[in-house]
Amino acid sequence: MEITLIIQVMVAVFLGSLMRSIFGFGDSVISMPLLALLPIPFSTSVALIGLTGLTSAFFTPSQVGKTRIPLS
């Protein structure tokens, strides 16, 4: 793999993860079309997005109780 392809994959996955962290969904909605433009197999793209979605969902419950927003 070329280094430019690796960087492009990392950017696509980062944008999808950023979307999920902001809105709570959308990692595959953003990442999959971007990864489809790259010359990597579709099955690899699906596995990569599934793994990143599972990883970010695994760490979400640990972050829920740490932020306190004052009501008044």
Topology:
Blueprint (H helix, E strand, L loop, with lengths): L2 H21 L3 H10 L5 H23 L8
Note down, in words, how this protein is organized.
- This protein is mostly helical and 72 residues long.
- The protein is 75% helix and 0% strand.
- Helix 1 runs antiparallel to helix 2.
- It starts with a helix and ends in an 8-residue tail after the last helix.
- The mean pLDDT is 85.
Residue runs with pLDDT of under 50 for 5 or more positions: none
Q: Which outline best applies?
A: elongated
Supply the helix-strand structural class. mainly alpha
Work out the helix count: 3
Strand content: under 5%
Query: What is the H/E order?
Result: HHH
Distance between the termini: 53 Å
Which percent bin holds the helix content? over 70%
